[in-house]
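Ticket #4471: structure output looks truncated?

Reporter: J.K.
Steps to reproduce: submitted the chain below (756 residues) through the standard prediction queue, then opened the result file.
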Amino acid sequence: MPLKRREFLKASAAAAAAASIGVNLIPGMENKLFADAITWHKSVCRFCGTGCGVMIGKKGDKVVAIKGDLENPINKGHICVKGFFLHKVIYARTRLLYPMIRKNGKFVRVSWDEALDYVAKRFNEIREKYGPDALAFYGSGQAETEETYMANKLFKGCIGTNNMEGNPRLCMASAVGGYLTSLGLDEPAGTYQDIEHAELFLLIGSNTAECHPIIFERIVRHKTKNPNVKIIIIDPRKTPTDQVADLHLFPKPGWDLAVLHAMAYVIIKEGYADLDFIKKHVNFKNNEGKDISFEEFQKFLEDYTPEKAEKISGVPASEIVKAARMFGQARTAMSMWTMGINQRTRGVWANNLIHNLHLLTGKIGVPGSDPFSLTGQPNACGGVREGGGLCHLLPGHRKVTNAKHREEVARVWGVPVSNIQPKPGKHTIAMFEALNEGKIKGIYIMCTNPAQSLPHAQKFWKGLKEQFVVLAESFYPTATSEYADVLLPAAFWAEKEGVYGCTERRSQYMPQVLQPMGEARWDAWILRDLAIRMGFKKEFEKYKTAEDIWNEYISLTKGRDMDLSGATYRRLKKVRGLTWPVPSEDHPGTYKRYVKGDPFFDKLPEEKKKGRRMYFYGKPDGKAVVWARPAKPPAEPTDKDYPFALTTGRVLEHWHTGTMTRAVLELERAVPKAYVEIHPDDAKKLGIANKDMVIVETRRGKLKIEARVIDRPEPGTLFIPWHWKEWLANLLTIDAFDPGSKEPEYKVAAARIYKA
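Returned output as attached by the reporter:
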């Protein structure tokens, strides 16, 4: 018998509350909630980069429920509150259902033929008049690998521009830079399996409980079973993650590099360094990239004794020493970090310093030990980092600057190698600046919302307004659709098939469960049909199925460090994903890189492996690098006019710009609006009471918003969640970026606050 609406809402609210902290439904509830769901289909969650397996419950031609996949090794049946309500996003009233062209200032519904003919005509006119670099593509870590692959081929291989970027530039580029410069290759050495073997967790710049709740649940479950497991948090703000912390260090925003150096100083001075591992597996370099000795590195660290680091960071020296000893004494240690480290003008350096701790202590390459960057989007790794969806990359961890790489890709794409330009295109901030300046005349934006998500967002509205903007999106309206000339309705999640690659190097297949709503189409087919209309029929008409695209893509990964050639659709449909490298269809996938069991390690000549348990084969001599990076101030330090450090972030119930989660009534009601957190001591001095309306101001803009007086931020720090375009936090953020990764500084901006 169907549940009455009141009963369902009560049950779903209880289920959501349980799911939000990563626990299964209470006994009997699942059967009651899902009694009418006739068929279940395994898939992957559409939200963060954890990669949770979900089961899609379908009755007739409608998805009616979502539950965790008990057989998925990542989440083991658990899902968070966002995943629990994912089916409701499919039927959001804000779904974009039909192609539209802006005519006389208003959107008018048109046919697909008219829309694509118009875009092809305009793009070809721009290309012919201004050259290929007057066009650009801006994509997403939420698009499937097949979709990004089609865009990559069209823009880099056929149009002939490397002006191809994606929003992972805004969240993961510094993690990439850290892995490349420290270990030699991108992405983690280990997987989530390390969680259950770790004796210590260092959570730095990560509100894991709210932003990666299923990973947090695994950590909590492991600590509950093993009370001796320790957790250190380094974060300038208290968060729900603190519930399980044994030690929390509160550095001033932007100054945690000094803390990490001081920990390294203590680790070496007190004998926790693994000297044998260092001798066999580690080189040392200064900030200019020149080789230095271990002794010279130790001398560098003398500027970061715990006492000196206290003066720089505000963290008491005694707590730094305690953290260093905990890390040094643990048999195994796993570090996890995300945007609090990456979204900084020193993001790559901060990543390097986390890797330093593992390399100095030898806590890498064994179960339970790994420096493990957490990813924010479901396919930032698979589609963009591995798939080559940034301006300097090509599929299979290749670079546009490498002639051999260009030749390999051009051969598979069936295009002249001269089509692929040898110079990187414009990175995200440079791309939108070029749009402002009219150097880029047309842009295709897919599955993302840059008018809200870019730092100093209002700076870039000019270019969006003045140039030709095509937006392929599943939802309308968004902040970006206000500037679009053409809207192309994209199929959403369960309405298409494809592959996502998550944080732990795991690629997972997602089936098409539904027909797209309205006239929505799969992004890959939109791009294929656009390419054919632009004159690239020979290059694109061969793709008839999603599997055709995937097979071509994985052929480009064969022999590469992230070899997926054995991860065919046939195999992926049978399993819960595979962790690369997977060089053949009978290969089980790889748990640990750079060690025995990694196929690239195993095939190395024995003389290279002799006496060594790891070989970092992305480096010429197989040795990782410990970097001597100085602690430098953020791009915009506080001063007497702007005495507060403003930081931005997420809440559990919402995700990114809110286009999905705000469409779900239960999630929108849970957190209906933005707010600014301010410490009670600061609020008292300024005469601000809880729920007062205040003005938060930076050198870029002002925001009227409700105050939340709470001791989560440290004195002198403000926090605003960024999910609402009505309270647009990115009016305030700065568009300065890391010179290496080009990732912007969302986490520190000088601000002031006063009553409205």
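Triage note (M.O.): checked the attachment and the full token line is present. The first strand starts at residue 39 and ends at 44.
Status: closed, working as intended.
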